[in-house]
Amino acid sequence: MATLLVAGCRGGWTAAERDLIESQPDVMRVLTVDDEADLIILRTPCRDISPRELANPLYAELASRLISTVTSPEQDGVGIAGPQVGLSRNVIAVQRFDKEGEPFEVYPNIRITAFRGEPEPGSEGCLSVPGRRGKVLRWRDIDICYTSPETGQEVSERVEGFTAVIFQHETDHLQGILYTDKLVKE
Ligand code: NI
What we know:
Layout: H1 2-9, H2 15-22, H3 36-42, H4 51-55, H5 57-70, E1 79-81, E2 91-95, E3 104-108, E4 111-115, E5 120-126, E6 129-138, E7 141-147, E8 154-160, H6 162-173
Antiparallel strand pairs: 1-2, 2-3, 4-7, 5-6, 7-8
Bound molecules: nickel (II) ion (NI).
């Protein structure tokens, strides 16, 4: 009973999750498929972030660290997902090439709810699969749905072009899927 109360005081996040987020510098370690223990986490499906967990300052800290990590010179990526920093949680950061200034934005509890047109092949890489690239079929016109951390409401949005490809790559990570599972022949 005492344990349950303590867990409740953390605003839903587990002690291990809090440690993982707070014990690292702004740039978090990125897990890779080359490490056996990392691979298990990269293959684990994620769970959603509850309203209480979103309201906890730990979420804002995590969101900021995801951006610091993906934009760090050693990573220099266009997107990153929870499992890549060791968290089996539904959260991704994506560079919005479709917006002015191409900002990075963080999306909790994200799902793709519609795919339009035909998928087209494009070259991809992944921070968790160092030194490789490959062709994958992706849609260029999708709808996304996520929870707004500000209002707690579900938000839907249409995304087109290369940014839509990033959303598909990152949401795959949330189900333990890597782009290397989907390679098409050159
Ligand atoms: Ni990736």
